Model the fold of this input.
Amino acid sequence: MHFSLWLALTLLLLAIGAQLLAALQLAALRRAGHYPMRGQALMADVERLLKSGHRSWAIRCYREIHACTLRQARDAVEALAKG
Done:
């Protein structure tokens, strides 16, 4: 096989692996009661995730609530963290 084909296959497998890992982490957070079920997120969940050190999951939860861009959610969560 050509190098470029191997590279493309490797990148594809890495992307699939990253998606699988994120799905497993989300399932574990939901089982532990740290992340709300789909459609049930509240700002209290965002604050709880932020306080427990799950900043990236807090941003994701904020995006679910407000249907905003990643940048808007990150800025809002950073503002919550500061004040």
Summary: Residues 1-32 form one domain.
